[in-house]
Input
Amino acid sequence: MNIEQQINQLREELRQHNYNYYVLDAATISDYEFDMKLKELQALEEKHPEFYDPNSPTLRVGGQVTKNFNTVVHEQRMYSLDNSYSKEDLLDWETRIKKLVDGDVSYTCELKYDGASISLTYENGELLRAVTRGDGIQGDDVTTNVKTIKSVPLKLKGDYPAKFDIRGEIVLPYEGFAKMNQERIAAGEEPYANPRNTASGSLKLQDSSETAKRPLDCLLYNLAGDRLGIFSQYESLEKARDWGFKVPEESRLVHSIDEVLEFVNIWDVKRRDLPYETDGVVIKVNDLQQQEELGFTSKAPRWAMAYKFKAEQAVTKLNKITYQVGRTGAITPVANLEPVQLAGTTVKRASLHNADQIEKLDIREGDTVFVEKGGEIIPKIVSVDFTKRDQDSKSTVYISSCPECGTELIRKEGEAQHYCPNIDGCPPQIVGRIQHYISRKALDIEGLGGETVALLVKEGLIRDYADLYTLKKEQIIPLERMAEKSADNLIEGIAKSKEIPFERVLFGLGIRYVGETVAKKLAKHYKTIEAIMQASEEDLVSVDEIGIKIAQSVKEFFNTESSKTLITRLIDYGVQLQISAEKLANQKDTLNGQTFVVSGVFEKVSRNELKKLIEDNGGKVSSSISSKTSYVVAGANMGPSKLEKANKLGIAIITEDDFLNLLE
Ligand code: AMP
Ligand code: ZN
Output
């Protein structure tokens, strides 16, 4: 046997032992023997760098250092999940599904692991890349760290597809977490708050040998890719398991919502015996063809639903109610609590939402309260223990003037929130708007953080986001903690923001109710800020997905003199307030005003490509057939009920080729 063969054989052996130990939990050799083999391989590899393999088992111990994690765009977006909390929610979901797909629906029930989501890309059976979820569209490349997690296969077994992504969750089991914390406490360090945050923090460590030391695990649950030759979610779990992935065995294939609830009830109790944290059940439509038919909303798949286990509660005392002013002037009452442990973290504050909520709970300072951590990160107060209330306690009087600037608060008809109307003079509003403007999804100004914004405002250097473009280096350098270099970075970052496309600038303006998606829609439809400013309320409402609330808010924003001045200034400074010429040229209007429903399987283009083609050419994609549908693009296996409906309404059914001809 020559050296190369010897190296390969050792790698193969170690890989198998890793798999036995970390995935199957059934080791066949002792730790000592394993270490000896690993050392042998390390020595050989050191002597023969010509046989380097990025997926060698020796790299599991880490050592590579990453200074900056590269941003990678997910080939297929990573969505979040819609939540349900009751049988009714699930039945509603089923009703929605059955309107959109034909035939019976079966579901895969899986546990919802509470960790850090990860997307792994495999090519020709080798791990190519591991990327965090990030914002769902793009995440951070954490491959070097993920390679140190022993249950992540670096090479696959069996008949895997040539290329695919697999999604899952990196978790830190309780036992390892407790051990890490014991060590930290012993070393006089603050213990980590909870396994979930520690798992996601572990992926972003610069030194991968540090990650290697953490007892992380990787549980997989979703395959993504084109033509994987798989027809159901349940089958995909089995296949992934065959290829060497750690796919938990608890999943069940069921045929009704009642059976789903049975699964939930069993695991709500049994999950306490699992080695890692779970916070619910994920229910997925089993048939992949049906999944395709159902598609996605802008946030989550229509074919999946999370069912949250009932949250843990804690009892504590409400010390004081304080009030926060947000960037839009909205007032949020905050409960300041006697610190209490809840589901692994210390809770000191909880949101009280608004005046109605305070009234509904009849909550008072000094009360004993029940706190719960629901789906949100901020815990909430669910109720008051009235038996413990002091005789002389007084009911809460909601503030009537702004805690920051003293202006009298207003509350509009039909709105729950109080607002401070002093838009141009209330400090947290001024700072908050600029912080929003520079944030990652808006102008993404590098070298400028939220605290610096607050400082710049406090020092009187800026009062609005347009002022950013007038900043000079000499003005910044004297500021606290500002060096020559950071001042340069800041100025450069601001200048670079002039290249950020219109839709993100529009989002950054901070118009109430104009989130990312709405900003995109408006930018695409109107193309220039002037056109949006001139549009009437009726005109705005006619844009797809723009409702009256948004339209009114847009009008209100552009009707104020200060906003008009701001826009004029931004245009003068060269900020993008219209769609770039290049984008305009790419955007065609061939399908303007036409609505398409896509059904079945296609040959020349994938379903997603087809949808993109429709949208890029000015058309609209809808998931269900109605009298507004212009065409149904039908592939193979189009659902019979869709066919019937299209025929009944007299809607043209066209093939993939017909469609492509339309674009000519
Ligand atoms: P949420 O963050 O609450 O919207 O829930 C969505 C997240 O649940 C996903 O991004 C996954 O990281 C996570 N998750 C945990 N277990 C599963 C599972 N079995 N199937 C799908 N997603 C899961
Ligand atoms: Zn105010």
